[in-house]
Design a protein that fits this description.
Keywords: ATP synthesis, CF(1), Ion transport, Membrane, Transport. This protein is 0% helix and 74% strand. The protein has strands spanning 3-8, 13-26, 29-33, 40-53, 58-71, 74-84.
């Protein structure tokens, strides 16, 4: 079962889809999340969120001032400021 990811900022949905891996920077360091990861709640640090889609595409976003929550195979990343990096 894939990991369903939703990355949102305070005013818009930035990216939603299925992924094989997400790496995000938290106040305690980087965390990598895959399907079937144990539940986690963490505070985001300013930095990149790196998403690897199921077909291997890399999606990069900048994010700050928020949190991430993993429950089941659903990862929600809520940031005060977030945007895709081109």
């Amino acid at each position: 079962m894939p990991l369903h990811v939703s990355l949102v900022s305070a005013d818009a949905e930035v990216w939603t889809g299925d992924a094989s891996l997400v790496v995000a920077k938290t106040v305690e360091g980087e965390i990598g999340l895959m399907a079937d990861h144990e539940p986690v709640l963490a505070i985001l640090a300013e930095g990149q969120v790196r998403i690897t889609t199921l077909d291997g595409e890399k999606v990069l976003a900048s994010a700050q001032d928020g949190f991430l929550s993993m429950e089941g195979n659903v990862l929600t990343i809520v940031a005060g400021n977030a945007a895709l990096v081109s």
